[in-house]
Amino acid sequence: MKIVTFNIRTSDRDSRFDGANSFCYRESLIREEIEKEQPDVLCFQETRPYQADWAAKNIPGMMFLGCGRDTTLANDESMLVGLKIGAFRVIAMDTFWLSPTPEVPGSRYDDQSDCPRCATELLVQYKKTGQLYRILNTHLDHISSSARVLGATAVLHHLKVSAERFKHFGSFKTLVFGDFNAEPGDPEIDCMTADGSLKDITADVGFTFHGYQPSEIHSKIDYIFTSPDVCVSSVEKWTREENGLFLSDHYPIGAVVDE
Known about the structure:
Blueprint: E1 2-7, H1 23-37, E2 41-45, H2 49-58, E3 62-65, E4 81-84, E5 88-97, E6 118-126, E7 132-139, H3 145-166, E8 172-179, H4 187-193, E9 199-200, E10 222-226, E11 231-237, E12 241-242, E13 245-246, E14 253-258
Parallel strand pairs: 1-2, 7-8
Antiparallel strand pairs: 1-14, 2-4, 3-4, 5-6, 6-7, 8-10, 9-10, 11-14, 12-13
Helix pairs in contact: 3-4
């Protein structure tokens, strides 16, 4: 089962603020790479509404779940989870906000940027094996370290709560995807693996954020965490680039999960 985390780089429709790497120029490259790689689970971060619509119409064979992070649920970035059509049974879905009131759309911590932060969680059954997977996709704050620590703590708390809720469906494995806006060794990353319930399968991929300048900007801020019972046979960055055109300002990370 192939899984991917992919910060697609937020963009207004037809915006040119990224110059030659604006989304309107990257669309076909992204589509081609996804069609080549054929992921079973594809988690996007920073997906604007029109980008979500584009994905639904232009990435064949995948269905996408998730909503906007603002109070309208429709006019801001979403944490989209894409599933290969026909490969999964969707058992449960939840959206929650990284805030003191996680059930309130658009809510946020006081010590945070103006951007609300949320997560999309699914419980699915992989039809090929019958195995249950809990999938969570999120994006932590880009300004405040304390907000990121609070956000990571909220994710971990939610995982404990949903584990209790999902236990009646049977044994499940956990996959957590996201742009954590923090590097290995930072407190917001250390807390994700501190109790041993999650492991970082992307520890050896090197930098992921390059800002379209991979020879100059190096930051490892994108992650896939899994429960210890997940066996992974390979992990790699998608580094495709054609004449200065990149898939995003982040390298997506793909992994193969074995049963």
